């Protein structure tokens, strides 16, 4: 019986990766709910808050290329276990931080520490599961991330009066350290399945990935769909709901929970039906084409303020489940031995997009308000700009032949 067929696989392989991505997403989105407290305690501007939150995406993104090389050379067990210790250190440092600079540095360490949580899982699935199960396994691990996002919404808002944002980060630091130990003790060995290419050859292959037409085709959507969604979910959704829709913090947090419930619903659906759909010829690219097309429509409705807003935020979460298919769709065009490098390269684009959009929205809001725009009006203009960028990045997903001729 192969490893992928053993019942214990869910415990020894899936569970450590799922818990890692749960923690990663919890840390990614926690600032959305604690942002009012951070702003009050540190007297932050919108740009300051955007920078503090988005530095997670910056260090996360910078880590992706060396991370991809490390995953292919050393395997997911050693890489993930080691980096989770750094996430524990960063979370403890955030809990003790007293200035914008200290918290920004700690947030950056957190981003670096959880940078392998999803990519290590995808690498492990590619090593230990058959190809037809990749979409389903990706859906299930993304569902674990959605649970982390759920925890960072209404449950987190309910805990703040008792623990405070510093207490929350002490708890997270303890969880990260415990999870590192779990990874080292539970995951199977991966030495036999790692790459033995020379470092020079590996670096050359990474450079080739970034100029390949099959990579560039997906780079834009990873930047502005995946990255844009992460920027809104992890920070700007709550200010939007409070300022544009006029909701109090507790109700805005509940709407964020609905968004995350939608994401969980979408990811579980992909996990449950992905294998069967794949066997019937539905590709990861097909998921993206349909999902992103409908997502543009839903975001337009949110921007307009017309209709059942709560339903639209739920649908936005459901549709965001197609983001994870980008990794499989891109990697399918490259050798399996390069999976770690390809998936982390596309992840770099996603997190670069999250950093650019999250900080950029903060800068845009400050500039627009300095020039007389209201807070709700500024948010609408900034969100409309993001949708325009998404439309442009959607085109290559539909017109591959034209793109290849141009490249």
Give the key terms.
disordered C terminus
| Coarse morphology | globular
Ends distance: 46 Å
List the helices and strands in order: HHHHHHHHHHHHHHHHHH
**Strand tally:** 0
Largest sheet: none
The total count of helices amounts to 18
Strand percent estimate = under 5%
Kindly describe this structure.
It is a single chain. By secondary structure, the chain is mainly alpha-helical. It is built from 18 helices and no strands. Helix 4 (64-74) packs antiparallel against helix 5 (76-96), helix 11 packs parallel to helix 16 (339-370) and helix 13 (284-304) packs antiparallel against helix 17. The longest helix has 33 residues, at 154-186. The radius of gyration is 20 Å and the shape is globular. The protein starts with 8 loop residues before the first helix and ends with a helix.
């Amino acid at each position: 019986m192969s490893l992928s067929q053993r019942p214990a696989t869910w415990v020894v392989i899936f569970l450590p990766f799922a818990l890692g991505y749960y923690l990663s997403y919890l840390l990614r989105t926690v600032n959305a709910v604690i942002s009012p407290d951070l702003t009050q305690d540190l007297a932050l501007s919108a740009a300051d808050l955007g920078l503090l939150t988005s530095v997670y995406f910056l260090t996360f993104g910078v880590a992706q290329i060396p991370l991809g090389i490390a995953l292919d050379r050393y395997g997911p067990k050693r890489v993930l276990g080691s980096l989770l210790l750094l996430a524990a250190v960063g979370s403890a440092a955030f809990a003790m931080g007293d200035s914008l600079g200290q918290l920004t540095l700690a947030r950056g360490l957190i981003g670096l520490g959880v940078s392998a949580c999803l990519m290590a899982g995808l690498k492990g699935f590619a090593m230990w599961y058959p190809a037809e199960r990749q979409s389903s396994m990706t859906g299930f691990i993304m569902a674990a991330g959605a649970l982390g996002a759920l925890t960072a919404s209404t449950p987190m808002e309910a805990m703040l009066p008792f623990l405070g944002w510093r207490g929350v980060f002490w708890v997270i630091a303890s969880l990260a350290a415990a999870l590192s130990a779990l990874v080292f003790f539970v995951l199977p060995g991966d030495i036999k399945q790692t790459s033995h290419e020379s470092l020079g050859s590996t670096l050359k292959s990474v450079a080739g990935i970034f100029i390949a037409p099959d990579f560039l085709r997906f780079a834009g959507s990873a930047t502005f769909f995946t990255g844009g969604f992460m920027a809104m979910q992890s920070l700007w959704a709550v200010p939007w709901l409070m300022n544009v829709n006029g909701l109090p913090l507790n109700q805005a947090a509940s709407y964020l929970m609905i968004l995350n419930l939608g994401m969980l619903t979408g990811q579980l659906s992909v996990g449950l039906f992905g294998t069967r759909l794949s066997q019937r010829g539905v590709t990861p690219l097909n998921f993206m084409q349909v999902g992103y097309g409908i997502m543009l429509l839903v975001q337009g409705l949110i921007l307009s303020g017309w209709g059942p807003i709560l339903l639209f935020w739920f649908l936005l979460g459901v549709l965001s489940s197609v983001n994870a298919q980008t990794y499989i769709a891109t990697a399918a065009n490259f050798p399996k031995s390069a999976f770690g490098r390809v998936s982390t390269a596309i992840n770099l684009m996603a997190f670069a997009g999250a950093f650019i959009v999250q900080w950029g929205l903060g800068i845009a809001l400050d500039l627009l308000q300095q020039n007389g725009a209201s807070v709700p009006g500024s948010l609408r203009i900034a969100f409309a700009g993001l949708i325009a960028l998404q439309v442009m990045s959607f085109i290559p997903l539909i017109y591959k032949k034209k793109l290849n001729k141009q490249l």
